[in-house]
Amino acid sequence: MVPVFWENPELISLRRLPMHAVPHGDRLELDGTWQFELLERADGEPTGTWREIQVPGAWTMQDTFDKPHYTNVQMPFAGNPPHVPELNPTGIYERTFELPARWAGRRIVLQVGAAESLLVARVNGRDVGLSKDSHLAAEFDVTEVVQPGINTIHLRVIKWSDATFIEDQDEWWHGGITRPVFLYATGPVYLAEIRAIGGLAADLSTGTLEFRAEVEFAGVEPQPGWIVETTIGAPDGADAPLLSVNEEAVVTDHGPDGTTLAQRTVVARHAYGGQMTDDEANVEWPALERRLARPLDGLVGWRREIPDVRAWSAEVPALYPVVVRLRAPGGEVVEEASLRIGFRRVEVRGLELLLNGRAVLLYGVNRHDFDQFNGRSPSRDSIRADLVQMKQFGFNAVRTSHYPNDPALVELCDELGLYVVSEADIESHAFWASLCEDPAYLGAWLSRVSRMAIRDKNHPSIILWSLGNESGYGDNHDAAAGWLRRYDPSRPLHYEGAIRFEWWSAQTASDITCPMYPPIEGIVAHATNGTQLHPLIMCEYSHAMGNSNGTLAEYWDAIEATPGLQGGFIWEWWDHGLVQRLPDGTTRWAYGGDFGDEPNDGNFCLDGLVFPDRRPKPALWEHRHLAAPVRISGSAADLAAGRVTIANRQDVRSLDWLAATWDLAAESGTLASGDVELPAIGPGTSATVALAGWPDAARLAGTEAWLTLRFRTPAELAWAQAGFEV
């Protein structure tokens, strides 16, 4: 018996296009009001009883019979993979669109940004594809099914499927289309992929760029003469480009491979490392390699070095604009794509994770895509507000728990300056030890890890790839790790499941020892007992529920005092309270069980550093103090004379980006205030500075007072204060 497609883990997609990182710009946005019907079964047929619904947005938050459901580890229904309940809410979405006249003769693609958990797409009554993966986009070529004038899109979204068992991620279960939907158009010859990963050479000042573009010939015979023109601009917007490269796309002669004896001799010499003439090495061998190991038609690849670049870091997020143009053999530009890259170097050396040659402490936090009103569709402005507030409170890193977040997140982390641990959409918590070994799920593991990396590889903010969360450790992880190491050797790998029971073991799947909620004495003991093999960065610690952040200072005392410890990621950013309207018209923040959802895990989803409206909790203020970019101290004699010692705790910048003021207060009120002239105090150094306008000692005799220094910047992203009694 052939299983139905929603209970077939080997079937991960049908006619879904490969993931890519090309921002195709000729778009028709389809967000807004759609016609909608919610069925009770995956195989149900629509009745034509339509209502309106907003896309993007979960149907569970839009007044349907299917309500939000919260569980942590347990599944929301009984049974074993891959079987799901017959009562399986299934949304039918429809809308029409008018095909732009300018798109006549062009290739047309439908993108659905995210659908939970299984998507079947149909256009004008014809099936165009299927996709499983609730947190990455699915694209389908609809060129042959669209028509001039009015067209109809029909999307079937099935809530429960075999994929649900690997999306068990300690958050609300929703259903629906939760990211934007749009169409885009290209010519029949188009940019199919762009790889532009910036690095730093060993001197940490020379930028390296590994570039690869793939030109696709859709329905036309590949022809030589297509040029990929790549221009890298300066980060300050200067007109003169730093680098411009024009390369012809490869079009291979697909004739027979016959070679002469002399040519086979050149091949053999190259293989065993024999001596070759300059002509053999630089002319004959490249031509033979292209002939015998035929590259992809349309491929362009090169590596260049750029001297004296500004390195990207969370403190100085220097971004370089890159413009990629595809030129036809006649010279006209048929497509143009713009992106921004950063030059940085990420490596593990000994017991340290080095960023641009320096061991950086990670003040991290875990983050879900969350919105108190629509469930899981935050706007770009909302995501930006998250990141700005994180920086204001001292965080320099975010983990995308437990799936690739909205694409805006990594774009904004590039721009604002936060390090990212990018995590694949894999968590099989309820079946922790089994699905990671199940070959039926091998394709899903590889697909989710590879699609994440292909989408986000060009973002400098991503410093670690994570293979998922709380899914045991098995063959499927090693297969995914092997693919990822080959695809992107520029970033180390992270996976807590591989080290959970043996921090000291040699690893194939994780370059980081990344435990969850370890005791302070445990991390210190591991770093000092001679068993540590990798940098230790806690992927989750200090669970932010109730008053459980109470040992933040003790954790950071241990981290700062112990080599081999490099910080961690607090669980988590948000309280996941959903706005629920009650019968009397009032609203409240609801948690597990408040929607009649059974089984549930109660208020365990209310475990964030901020409330659902982003108001900070007390622990956030403590974190800001612990992670402040400056610390002040002073002896009694210094303070009497109006001097303090200021230490710069940053990794890259001096303190000249800050403006400082001071005030001295007692119970009776403010005694005095003034400015502080900050010298260029370099990272990791300190200096003694004078407090302008400090009162004479006689005025302060016998007074208990509190001195506060405030360090501000004109930008919105960071400010800090430090104080102590005098």
Description:
By secondary structure, the chain is an alpha+beta fold. The chain has 4 domains: 182 residues, Jelly Rolls, CATH 2.60.120; 153 residues, Sandwich (Immunoglobulin-like), CATH 2.60.40; 247 residues, Alpha-Beta Barrel (TIM Barrel), CATH 3.20.20; 96 residues, Immunoglobulin-like (Sandwich). Helix content is 16%, strand content 33%. The strands form 12 sheets. A 7-stranded antiparallel β-sheet has the order 1-11-10-13-7-3-4, with no helix packed on it. It has a 7-stranded parallel β-sheet with strand order 33-32-30-29-28-35-34. A 4-stranded antiparallel β-sheet has the order 2-17-8-12, with no helix packed on it. The protein starts with 12 loop residues before the first strand and ends with a strand. The C terminus is likely disordered.
Mean pLDDT: 93
CATH topology of the largest domain: TIM Barrel
**DSSP E strands, number:** 44
Class from secondary-structure proportions:
alpha+beta
Major sheet summary line:
7 strands, antiparallel
- The global form is globular
Spatial sequence of strands, sheet with the most strands: 1-11-10-13-7-3-4
Query: End-to-end span in angstroms?
Result: 80 Å
Hey, roughly how much beta strand do the residues contain? 25-35%
Instruction: Name the helicity range.
Output: 10-25%
- The stretches of 5 or more residues where confidence is low (pLDDT under 50) are 719-726
Features of this protein?
alpha+beta; 4 domains; Jelly Rolls; 7-stranded antiparallel beta sheet; disordered C terminus; 33% strand; TIM Barrel; 726 residues; Immunoglobulin-like
